[in-house]
Amino acid sequence: MSRLLDLMRGDPVADRVVPPSTRSSALTLIISAIMAFLAVFALALSLATLRLADRWSSALGESATIRLTAPEESEEARLSRILAILSETPGIASFRALTVEEEKSLLTPWLGEAVPLETLPIPRLVELLPADQDYDAEGLRLRLEAEVPGAALDDHAAWRRPLVRSAHRLTVLGFGALGLILVAMAAMVTLASTASLAVNRPALRVLRLVGARDAFIARAFVRRFTLRALTGAALGTLIGLAAIWALPDMEAAGGFLTGLGFGGLSWLSALLIPLIAAIVAFWATRAAAFRALKEIP
Amino acid sequence: MIALEDVSYGFDGRLLFEGIGMTLAPGSFHFLTGASGAGKTTLLRLCYLDLLPQRGTITAFSKPAARLGRDGIAQLRRRVGVVHQDCAFLDHLSVRDNIALPLIAASVPPEQHGAAIDDLLHWVGLTERAAARPPELSGGEKQRAALARALILSPDVILADEPTGNLDWEMSLNILTLLVELNRLGKAVLVATHDLNLIRAAKSQVSARVLRLRQGQLDVAGAGL
């Protein structure tokens, strides 16, 4: 890091020895901007899926549902029995049976207003909130099976786990994409700096002939490319952040994709992108410069 | 200061010279002559370690060249001023900045550049052309600027590869006089040239040894040259 800071401070006299900008150094700026723009989205995706996984994991883990499918004449009696069992079960904070109206309002978004829900055999639902995660779900399930025919406990585990797993995989994919973007940026900066070094080979030779050390020559090139990458990445990051900021509000739209974005301090994490781009460019150019100089006596 | 011992070098399997020896001692003045393609430039490049010998040893300032490493070679080049045949300038810099290049490469603070560069520009008669870019200079001006750059770090050894190649006779004598002046200050000077008239003209000014590369061997040329 101290090397990077020294590099930023620069040496105006030494910098002049490098011939003026070439097309390849302008290319570095553009590539860095594009890569940083993509990196902002990859980072936003990773953070969004991370949040989503946490939300799913906690929200779904908080509640469970008992579903009762029974003939109409015995429905109320069995529902009462379920409530009685729940009141005797340790580890359950609260429970309540959903009213028929509440169930209908849950189904309306899926089936539409036109469907006469009262003619359908809709199971009754009892929502329960465990006091802690360790209540004996298996014991409760067995007791319900034994004592209340048609009752089934659903603690959401069956579909919560794959969802959370998928969200975690998306997070890994997002961070993987971020890593690949940085690798691609390193490759592109290496190509651009190698091209620039090749074009400036006669200048490198002159500098060696007048007694310049490899580190001195490399520093002048590395500084140019690192600053270009930093400037380009800063621009790309700003544009990316502006684009994310301009996305529709997550709460208003309610969809998953609109959850793409940064929240709170995570906005600051995007500011690391230009810094990482500069570090990547620093090492990529440095390696390319020393490789090129090795070919010059 | 620089000694070549039993040195051989060749390109593409063809030996350019074989088993040659030469010592550049403090205060010595050597001319190196020979036909085109005899290996004069190659021999000079060996002296400033732009090439390393395929056989034999080169010792520079009491250190074996083979053990110097890249930083060691850079350090050596600060003690050896070279006037290259093609002058080897950076065209985007002014004459003044080109002359300052060895100072910049040696990380000498910029505030210490001024006086030395002004003196040298005056000495080689380029004060008025200090701001010009190398492509704007005439052949003679380039050679004089190259000489100024070679001297900016006050080197112990001066190697000049055809330093009068592009010059008229009067300008050639001027350059020669400059080199002789430096030699009188104790610098070792080696001038590669095929200009025998220049060598003859030098004999009245300095006690110079004339080395001749011929058929892969380095001989001391006779008095009749």
TrEMBL record, chain A:
Chain segments annotated as transmembrane: 26-50, 170-191, 229-247, 267-285
How does the UniProt record describe the way this protein sits in the membrane? Answer: Multi-pass membrane protein
Q: Please name the taxonomic classification of the source.
A: Bacteria, Pseudomonadati, Pseudomonadota, Alphaproteobacteria, Rhodobacterales
The protein's name: FtsX-like permease family protein
Q: Please name the Pfam families in this protein's record.
A: FtsX
Q: Which GO terms describe its biological process?
A: cell division
Keyword check for Flavoprotein? no
Q: Does the keyword Cell membrane apply?
A: yes
Q: Return the GO cellular component terms, semicolon-separated.
A: cell division site; plasma membrane
Q: Which UniProt keywords apply?
A: Cell membrane, Membrane, Transmembrane, Transmembrane helix
Residues of the ABC3 transporter permease C-terminal domain: 177-288
Q: Which domain of life is it from?
A: Bacteria
Location in the cell = Cell membrane
Under InterPro entries, the record lists: ABC3_permease_C, FtsX
Organism annotation: Palleronia caenipelagi
TrEMBL record, chain B:
Positions the record marks as coiled coil are none
Q: Which UniProt keywords apply?
A: ATP-binding, Nucleotide-binding
In its UniProt record, a GO molecular function of this protein is: transmembrane transporter activity
Output the superkingdom of the source species.
Answer: Bacteria
Pfam families attached to this UniProt entry: ABC_tran
Question: What SMART domains does this protein map onto?
Answer: AAA (SM00382)
What region holds the ABC transporter domain? 2-225
Entry-linked InterPro entries: AAA+_ATPase, ABC_transporter-like_ATP-bd, ABC_transporter-like_CS, ABC_transpr_LolD-like, P-loop_NTPase
Q: Which GO terms describe its cellular component?
A: plasma membrane
Protein name listed in UniProt? ATP-binding cassette domain-containing protein
Species the sequence originates in = Palleronia caenipelagi
